[in-house]
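Recap for those who missed Tuesday's class. We walked through two folding examples back to back. For each one, the amino acid string is listed first and its predicted structure tokens come directly after. Nothing is annotated here on purpose, so try labeling regions yourself before you check the end of the notes.
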Amino acid sequence: MTDHDRLNRLADELEIRDLAQRYAIAITARDLDAVADLFCSDADFGPAGTGRVGASAFYAEYFARNERHAFLQVGTHQVDLIDESTASGVALTRSWDVGPGPARLDVLVVYFDTYRKRDGRWGFVQRRETLHDAVPAAPADPEAAVPAMTRPWEYWDRWAERKRSETLFR
């Protein structure tokens, strides 16, 4: 791989990571135009349509039926470049959802993404959102707010076993 190829890969990865950051800001701001602009023209939103028009219709309906307001933060974001115009990724996010009233939720969401580069620009083809966990943001009893966590990856079970056998750091 040449230095030029490495620089192109780094630029592509940064642009893709920036998509997730821009998505978080757009969702937090409830900015339909900004959200829609992040999706490729062939992104499929089912009955809402495709592309930016479909994205705008889908998120307009989502915001209309969702009274909670999310403050979304992107944490770990793994990007895997498949070729010059296709990539996939996993983004671990945290959302503080504020609703009408005093209740707030601390929500962990994992996005499984597909990206495509068209006309020199990366965009989302698909974002598969999976709710991982949600707890009250400010519980009266912090110990009661630690639910049994779902384990989408087998590594977590192995980690739990090592912790039980006290071999976590050996």
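Example two. Treat it independently of the first, because the proteins are unrelated.
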Amino acid sequence: MAVLAHAEAGEIAARLRTILLPGHQDMRAPESGLLMLRGRIGGDGAPFNLGEATVSRAAVRLASGEVGFGYTLGRDGEKARLIALCDALVQSRDFSATVERDVIGPLREQLMVRRKRAAEETAATKVDFYTMVRGEG
């Protein structure tokens, strides 16, 4: 699910187009709402409310009965629906291997390439600081 959450909706949709999808219906149409983000502070980890974030969610049921749920940050309801569809397909015996191979696997590779590139760009700006110690005698 983390791979799908980090992918763009268009990337997920393009990958799903390569699969002959089974019949499915929306159990919960995509909707957006707010979610309270909590953090912890101090030595004892006392919780505090950091702020709110917009979240979209959806639920999809396959004709064979599997139910998938999708959540994503932001107001992209279509992305939440596509994530829910993938979740339901992964639970299906007939489609789990295909979805892993044709959708999630390639998206995971793209995500790893992006993360590696970002890490390389960050590493290129790294500055090593050192301290000169002057001693007497």
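Answers for example two:
The helical segments are 2-6, 9-16, 77-91, 96-124.
The chain has four helices and three strands.
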